[in-house]
Amino acid sequence: MLAPRPARGNNRREEPAFIFGAKQQMEAPAKLQIGEFTIAFLSDGIWRNDGGCMFGVVPRELWQREHPADDQNRIRLNLTCPLIIRGRDVIVVDTGIGNRLSAVERRIFDHGEGWLIDGLQALGMEPGDVTHVILSHLHFDHCGGIVRRRAAGGFAPAFPHARIFVQRDELDLARGTRNERLRAAYRHVEECLQPVSGSIEAMAGDAEIVPGVSAIVSGGHTEGHQVTIVHSGGASFVHLADIVPTRSHMRGPWNQAYDLDAIRTMDSKAGYLARAVAERWWISFAHDERVFAAQIENDRGRLVLGARIGVPGGLDGV
């Protein structure tokens, strides 16, 4: 387990003045019990991204059957951020986009202020209650919500008391790459990470964050991409982030064009999904607009959803 950080001398909650849009009238998020842990399925909202980018070499004729595109070739996607709770441990896995986008970016991605803070409040919690944040990787739709835009300008930590865990390889690549494609993918990183630099804990490989919750390097999507696994009381849950971002990506060759190493993504995906079937794990999808999480079954060689937790407003018949 990672060494604990010394206790803070001042536990007062001093939340910065943030810009918030119209508050969502939100029901309490759906929950799943995994042994001693409660997992609440927070969402930072629905956004849109190019369907071709999300499915790579898969022809549009195939992916649009399950993910219809708009006139700009964008598909609806969720921003699922599981909240793992046991006692005083409150762990957010990924933080969505947040409210840091420019007006132009908001139009491109059709995303507003985000719902992550609203989801916490619907559980009777505040941002200051979060003790840990695990970032699967540093693309903007997974780490953007680590900060909040302040009314006075600039950004402040969204979760002021949280320790933030990210792979060192991911940090080094995001901050130091000379590759033109990667620089574009990580252009937002300093804006997101500079306000929380004192809380970041760079990891060198797999680690247990708290007893029962581990971050495991998967690679594939990015070099330092990691998944989060919860084991407790004979039950297991895994958030595969961008290794299996939607239910459709359970198919072996259905990968994102963003993947740096599609073969490694496929290998990681196959291994985790096989264990999920054999051991009745729950898996959650980072971007599925209909399903937060499900158990997976093998139906004559085809992976299908078994028991599931749906996204409110998601369509039936999945």
The coarse overall form would be globular
Please write the CATH class name: Alpha Beta
Distance separating the two termini: 39 Å
Q: For the largest sheet, list the strands in their spatial order.
A: 1-2-3-4-5-8-9
What is the averaged pLDDT score? 91
What report would you give on this structure?
The chain has 318 residues and is α+β, with helices and mostly antiparallel strands. The protein has one domain (31-310): 4-Layer Sandwich (Metallo-beta-lactamase, Chain A), CATH 3.60.15.10. The protein has helices at residues 51-55, 60-63, 103-109, 116-122, 140-143, 168-176, 180-185, 189-193, 262-279; strands at 31-34, 37-50, 74-86, 89-93, 132-134, 147-149, 155-157, 163-167, 200-203, 207-210, 213-217, 226-232, 235-239, 282-284, 291-299, 302-310. Strands 1-2-3-4-5-8-9 form a seven-stranded mixed β-sheet. Strands 10-11-12-13-14-15-16 form a seven-stranded mixed β-sheet. β11 and β12 form a beta hairpin. It starts with 30 loop residues before the first strand and ends in an 8-residue tail after the last strand.
